[in-house]
Amino acid sequence: MLIQGVSEDGESLAVLRAREDRLEAGIVRAVKEGEPPTSGELLKLTPRPESPLVCDVETQVPAGLINASGGSDRKTSHHGPAQVASPSYRNNWDRIWNRPNKSQPN
Known about the structure:
mainly beta, 3-stranded antiparallel β-sheet, 1 helix, about 10% helix
């Protein structure tokens, strides 16, 4: 990866990356503690001693595994949070907590 320039605020770098027989232009930003990573890849850059604007790149997390909220971009068959309760768990829950209303006559 070749660093082309720094943004005015100093928060990002314009880069050229050579991989798989092609050149890619991109923007690199540092990961900040307490903030979710944005889309794209999570990379580790190691500057070369003889030329600090050229970096060796190691992919820590491949593209498509992180979204803007820090979760996975992988699609699931349902919407909402993960389903952690099995049908037998729900049936037993209903037996314990769904007691008849005492205000109704038998």
